[in-house]
């Protein structure tokens, strides 16, 4: 089955948020494809003939191209450049951060290091723009040329224009041969100051010929740049990040207002593509999924069970001794409800704890856990008698890949190793072509949507993320059986209380929070128990809000809830003597401590 869809092509230069750009565009109902930033732009690719989704379906023609951010600088050898043809195609371009600097540099402008890096929430001011003149509107055979496209793009910055105005107004207009300017777009932009999200150490010091500055940061540096004749647009910030005000509106203004895309993409289509791809690749071979019981691996399991005969799917769950309280029983029940016929539960607590003895370095712990996962899996597969043609499936998400430096291209940098990504044994399996990762282009909240479509129980779909290495990365320093037991009890008290308590909106605190957990610090603090002086462990609570895990804010607990939960933990878990609350956002901190 084939279909043609309007497509936004994203050139990936190594940004940690490149896939997030694609995800945001899919949220708008438009198909997006990501390729390495320096890929050759052939006729076949631009027409959509070589762009396929995970189901092998052919995409429609490219309506716009986005140049992503990058950890590199354009003036260094490491700074990759796009195929020069991208500037001769007449297709709208949107440069984001490095992408804007790349466009400027390639056209003869200047980019230099900033004296002080612009990072995080930065104010941006958009200049007032008059409507295009009749003379400007007469360009390009009766179309308004880039003057009209500029107005349509800047509509995304105007607080008087809603996302619905942009998506419905411009996407409807895109269906006509000669789209008019939407009536909802005002002639001038009077209220366009907003807070952007920036992360760059370079800035434009001279614009290339034909470019015009339409917005500046509060520091006075170029933030929004548009070409007067060509449909080229640039942003010195990241609209794809949830913390960027007007981010979705700005992307929508480019996708619909500038590129004229139609809203045709859905998660249901993506799911069907995934199922087709899995069926074609796996065929009649058995597939073994290493399942943790969390959202990712459970949804991956549900997808396999919906795609293949149940007797072809083997689900292997390992109780590593690093799991949450009652985890094994919960996992077993959930998987049996999904129709699993071959559920193999491996009790390996002693093996994992023995392997972790004496280890304190976080990366060393992750590597040991990852290697042991695979070695135990190989041993257990041999016991099961599964053939060599058996595929290994994992619930790897794109965030796991990009944080491990394994994005689309070769420019992403390592943030941390994931047990199912960075392990040498996993790499070997990957190179042998025997690993299936059906969720590796999705973010956590997209996986939740897919899980609901697949019929996964809502309690499982809503479950907070849990790292593959489990409690090992929530115990800084050496991991012991005693510490795991203490942390397991304290974490259970914390999570149970979040589920019981209600916010001002009437929802449970658990559902208000994207991820919450406890960390057992390698510190003992003096305290008083009854009339006795004693030393107890220090526990740190972590609770954050996020949409995708790439950025995160601290959850603003009501003081009463936080105080009562702290008291309950110290009264219930006798080895905990003190409780603290982690108030660090991501960035600069990561969500997990290790």
General description of the model:
This protein is an alpha/beta fold and 594 residues long. It has three domains: 7-258, 3-Layer(aba) Sandwich (Rossmann fold), CATH 3.40.50.880; 276-461, HUPs (Rossmann fold), CATH 3.40.50.620; 480-581, 2-Layer Sandwich (GMP Synthetase, Chain A, domain 3). It is 34% helix and 22% strand. The chain has 19 helices and 18 strands. Strand 11 (313-319), helix 10 (327-337) and strand 12 form a beta-alpha-beta unit. The protein starts with 6 loop residues before the first strand and ends in a 13-residue tail after the last strand. The model is unreliable at 49-59, 133-144, 174-191, 401-408 and 412-419 (pLDDT under 50).
Topology of this protein?
Blueprint lengths: L6 E6 L5 H10 L3 E6 L6 H5 L14 E6 L25 E4 L1 H9 L3 E17 L7 H4 L7 H10 L8 H11 L20 E13 L4 E7 L4 E6 L4 E4 L11 H12 L8 H16 L4 E5 L3 H13 L5 E7 L7 H11 L4 E6 L1 H8 L5 H23 L6 E3 L4 H6 L20 H8 L3 E2 L7 H11 L3 H4 L19 H20 L8 H4 L2 E15 L2 E14 L7 E2 L4 H14 L3 E6 L13
Parallel strand pairs: 1-2, 1-3, 3-4, 4-9, 10-11, 10-13, 11-12, 13-14, 16-18
Antiparallel strand pairs: 5-6, 5-7, 7-8, 8-9, 15-16, 16-17
Helix pairs in contact: 5-7, 6-7, 8-9, 9-15, 11-12, 17-19
